[in-house]
Amino acid sequence: MNETSPHITGYITYVIVLTFLLVMTFLSVAVTSYHLGSFTVALALIIASIKVTVVLNYFMHLKSESLFLKLCVSGVFLLFALVIIITFIDYLYR
Predict the structure, then answer these.
(1) Do 86 and 80 touch, CB atoms closer than 8 A?
(2) 3-class secondary-structure state, position 5
(3) Sign, Cα dihedral of 43, 48, 50, 51
(4) pLDDT tens for residues 46-94?
(5) Residue 22 predicted with pLDDT over 80
(6) Helix crossing, 67-92 with 39-54: angle to 10°?
(7) Which among 62, 64, 61 has a CA at the least distance from the CA of 73?
(8) Which residues lie closer than 8 Å to 47 by C-beta, 6 or more apart?
(9) Distance CA 42, CA 36 (A)
(10) What residue spans define the domains of the chain?
(11) Is it the case that residue 3 has pLDDT exceeding 90?
(12) 24 near 51, Cβ under 8 Å?
């Protein structure tokens, strides 16, 4: 980081993020109780990716890092998404 001032996040922000993550966890558990076919897994993965984004931004402080590091992390998740998509395509045509 080239910035001289540290990034400080208040406790209220962490409480809000924790509450949001708990709500999303309860939502992902609730989604599994409904039979939506293959959309159940897709919806659970979408909820999980939202939770991962929140954790990366607030708890790992990615929102205050350089653009290069953000692009590297985005590339890893893009590769992960590609592997998941290929797995779903393989599962669909079996």
Answers:
(1) no
(2) coil
(3) positive
(4) 999 899 989 988 888 888 888 999 899 989 989 998 999 999 999 888 8
(5) yes
(6) 170
(7) 62
(8) 24, 27, 28, 31
(9) 10
(10) 11-92
(11) no
(12) yes
The residue with greater pLDDT, 3 or 74, is 74
Query: Is 1's pLDDT higher than 70?
Result: no
Give the amino acid at 7: H
Token look-up 């939770």 returns 51
Q: Say whether pLDDT at 20 is over 80.
A: yes
Residues in the chain: 94
Q: Where are the alpha helices (DSSP H) in 38-66?
A: 39-54
Neighbour count for residue 24 (Cβ, 10 Å): 15
Neighbours of 42 (CB within 10 A): 14
* Distance (Å) of CA 55 to CA 18, 48, 58, 93: 9, 11, 5, 34
- Element spanning 11, H or E: helix 11-32
CA distance 26 to 33: 11
